Amino acid sequence: MVKSLSKRIGNAVALLLAVLILNFTLIHIAPGDPVEVLAGEMGGATPELLAEIRASFGLDQPFHVQLLTYLGNVLQGDLGYSYYYDMPVTNLILERIGATLLLVVTALLFALFIGTALGIASAQKRNSFLSHLVTVISLAGFSAPVFWVGIMLILLFAVAIPILPVAGMVSADTPSGSFAYILDVARHLVLPVLTLASIYLAFYSRLSRASMLEVLESDYVRTARAKGLSRFLVVYKHALRNAILPVVTFAGLQFAQVISGAVLVETVFAWPGLGTLAFESILRRDSPTLLGILFFSALLVLIVNILIDITYRLIDPRISAK
């Protein structure tokens, strides 16, 4: 297992380097000049001042020089300096990443546990009301765009049922560091989590249902039933362990999609995370900040995939034995 993990980490480092080069190249060739955007924010600038700003950020250098300088800085832990926020990109990301992780991890766990539970319950009673309800929820979740779900929830809870906050992460009058602060953040978290989890809840419920139906028809499950074991032991001790393997695999693969979905959800709900920061950076052509966010996102996805790989091996000992 140690040898396999070392190989996975080596591949992850190579992939991360490729992501850095690709991101830098794509942003470099994208239309728009960050210096002109800065000049616009300043109310205009002379050609001499534009050239001075361009030289101060190293933007007057050839592409390969800028790329090598950027890679060298990243290897030293320096993600650059934000053109717009006038502060190190690392500090900007560290300020926002907590809010994004809180949203993404909560939504993913909610979708994973609730979706799996619904799928397993519906698999045990194929033609029941619950099974049909799970099918309807899945179709609705797959069909509705995540930003549309968010806007509908905002309209519902801002106009018809005003019991939950529809924007921000915490109320301005809530004292920080108190229990009331935690409760206030939890209330603000409800709608963004429901929005982000909606599509993945549908996916996990369908996947776990199909996987459980297949496992329940296996010979070893029929043998367990023939031995007189209770339904609870057959389903949750023998069948669940194999049925959940595809769900765990897709949870790791979909982590990147959840992060990309968080960009839309954070923008709709004004959630102060990396998604909102990325959206603002794109509008202002703040390429160092955007590159830093993309680097951090790729790093998170690779770490989660390695952890999922380890979890997969712990759940299924046959993989560790190979």
UniProtKB/TrEMBL annotation:
InterPro entries: BPD_transp_1_N, MetI-like, MetI-like_sf. The keyword Aminoacyl-tRNA synthetase does not apply. The keyword Transport applies. Residues 97-312 form the ABC transmembrane type-1 domain. Keywords: Cell membrane, Membrane, Transmembrane, Transmembrane helix, Transport. It is a multi-pass membrane protein. The chain crosses the membrane at residues 12-30, 97-121, 133-165, 185-203, 243-271, 291-312. It is found in: Cell membrane. Belongs to the binding-protein-dependent transport system permease family. This is ABC transporter permease.
